[in-house]
Amino acid sequence: MTVLRRIAPQLVTLAALVALVTLFFPDFLRIEVVDGRFVGPVMDIAKRGAQVGLLTVGMTLVVATRGIDLSVGTVMAISGAVAAWAITHDVSLAGTLALALTAGAAAGLWNGCLVALVGIQPIVATLILMTSGRGIAQLITEGRILTFSNEGLAFLGSGDLLGIPVPALIWFAAALAIALLMRRTALGLLVEAVGVNRSASALAGVNAAVLLVAVYVASGLCAGLAGIVSAADIRGADANNAGLWLELDAILAVVIGGNSLLGGRFSIAASLIGALIIQTIDTGILLAGFPSEYNLVIKAALVLVILVLQSPNLAHQWRTVGRAARRRREGVPLSAKAQGQ
Amino acid sequence: MLLTIRSLTKTFPGTTALDAVDFDLAAGEIHALLGENGAGKSTLIKCLTGAYSRDGGEISLEGRPISPRSTSKAQELGIGTVYQEVNLLANLTVAQNLTFGREPTRFGMVDARAQKRQAEAMLEGYGLDIDVSRNLAAYSVAVRQIIAIARAVALSGKVLILDEPTASLDAREVETLFDVVRGLRDRGLGIVFVSHFLDQVFALTDRVTVLRNGRRVASERTADLNRVRLIEHMLGHALEDEVIAHGKTHDAAAAQRPELLRFENFGRRGHVEPFDLAVGRGEVLGLAGLLGSGRTESAELLFGVVEAHSGAARDENGTFDLSSPRAAVAAGFGYAPEERKEDGIVADLSVRENIALALQAHRGWLRRLSGAEQARLANNYIARLDIRTFGPEQPVGELSGGNQQKVVLARWLAMNPRFLILDEPTRGIDVGAHAEILRLIQKVTAEGMSILIISSELDELIAVSDRVIVVRDRRHVAELTGREITSDTIVRAIAAPQAGRQNSGEEAA
Ligand SMILES: Nc1ncnc2c1ncn2[C@@H]1O[C@H](COP(=O)(O)OP(=O)(O)OP(=O)(O)O)[C@@H](O)[C@H]1O
Ligand SMILES: [Mg+2]
What family is it from (chain B) (predicted)? Predict the structure, then answer.
């Protein structure tokens, strides 16, 4: 119930956006069954949204601790490169996945230690890996696009299970798992407490440093998973372009999800809807048939409108307006009636 | 009238903080604004300065209606304010804080030398010997409080508002502040003074206005009031028994208590000199001393906020680790720190989550306290400490200052530690709740909890302590027990460590 109230603004935004896109592209919500697979723009969004969606899950936790992780796009490139390298060097599929995820976790560990133990500001700490990480990925791929043909790995990027694209399933499963981990254990509360007031939390006995490191590791793992999906999708690791600028989309999704960059309360569900909103904008613009040079401008305009409508200041003013209107209705019923007639 | 407020109304979702309140301030008077925690004092002040927008009512200054939209606009009108939660910028220097917004410039650039001079001039008369070019973060709460006051005084041409300015000052500093305030009154300023120290109200103020549940219930000349009547106005009923009045009877036959813990040669260079301390089961230890004498530093050392360089902590099972707050919590310690806003509350989280936090951290993340259990804890302490909130789900940051303090206390009581360290636990707490908290301390110690309490209020310390340690220049210089615990001996020990030590030596012999 409370969850529903928390994500209501995001749901409304998504619904409005879907309605808008449907105006331009009437078949937007249509889903057909082709060869036992569901196809249609909505399925496309669920699949393409997987990469940003996965990043968003980890980013939400990092933002909840008043941090930010700029390196996730780069970490995607690294883990994709590791996966492609491993699979082309006859490592088993399980081993490949383990290696790629370990690379993501290691990157997160590095970030987390810089932030929690060394005390570097998150934006600076993660910037280091953001700028240098692509070099690491290039070293692994030796500067080429490292292609592979392993069907098992490719399945993670382009396969279907029960008619649903596998990346979408991975995305939702990861989000569900982490959301449950946060809310069924005390982790969610402790993360929020550290995000609001680290010093008070530490004095209350919360292991703030370890918690911070863990949050960045989680973000690295999510990015690692996103990197695998990305490489699997194109059957190759592209160190230069995998995950490029996606960290910004992930941050945007977290913000559209109504999570404060100042840390504290977070909602993974709301962030996920934020990611869906962004992907819907991207896909919608394409479907609506605008010339591609307009894409970024339209996207920026839509994002701006959404953020302004959701801003707390405006919400406050709406409430005041609503209260005034109610008072007018209740306070002067006679004249209101007279006006009505 | 210098300042008149008519029918000031302010509602928050769930509460009416101010309900048609009238308030008059004359030029050349010191006017006390009193009331229980959550009565609406700070809200009245914030509506007056424009920090909050009011829902209704008129405010006029010298007959002209005013509606400042922010603290700085209020300052331009001649209203200087020190809010309850001092809002200075810790990462600027003292001089920058003092001259913020009015920096002296030279050729369009800030003139650092003039700024320093100006800052030093502003601090003159407060008996503060500090380096104004150092960052504010280097100084204690008390010093920050005085800096905030000095800044507000310099900015207030007509009205000066002080919201609990003396909460973290000791007797000497309070006197200095009072001299400054009286001087301003004589210059014709109107001064609003909020405090829970009724003695200070009687010593300083000319008139008193009392708020209760957001309504004005009385406005009288201070001279026409007495303590009992004033408390009745505030609480709406008489205070049944004030613990301070009949606290512990300090007879010589102080109970022999089984020892719970012992700190041996415990100390840290540059922080607190090594000391020995034994704590009995169910004992209340008081820590007395001037500000900056090493009281808070001792507490931080005992809780592992800073690690000890020497010594060990021991209980019946041998030595144990106290190298971090986590280790201290694991050893059954609790610590309610002095700086409530920075180190105490987690403002955005609910009352329920704040109260459950220490217990939850102690249990570990895997053993989550269910929402129902947390709510049960919270409701229990909301009732026991009379926390004024519209429910356990309200964010703590929305509570009044005194109620936030109660939440921090509840957090540790809920954990039921064996040794609880309380640094100024009753700061900002009203008379009714004050008595309640002292009673609670007596109750939990009777059940076996040991408490170390730091307080600038000697009466309070004397009322609850079985033993008083006097700290001076970062050393534990005297230990007073039984009949020695009087304000006289404590004050003497604080001033002249030798006297105190001899005194206790004689008793022991
Ligand atoms: N920002 C806010 N949002 C919601 N409620 C608030 C807010 N600020 C204050 N209140 C409520 O308004 C009431 C009055 O609070 P206020 O801070 O004025 O009390 P006070 O008299 O200053 O108490 P204290 O002595 O504890 O400082 C309280 O019930 C408090 O919970
Ligand atoms: Mg207040």
Answer: Belongs to the ABC transporter superfamily.
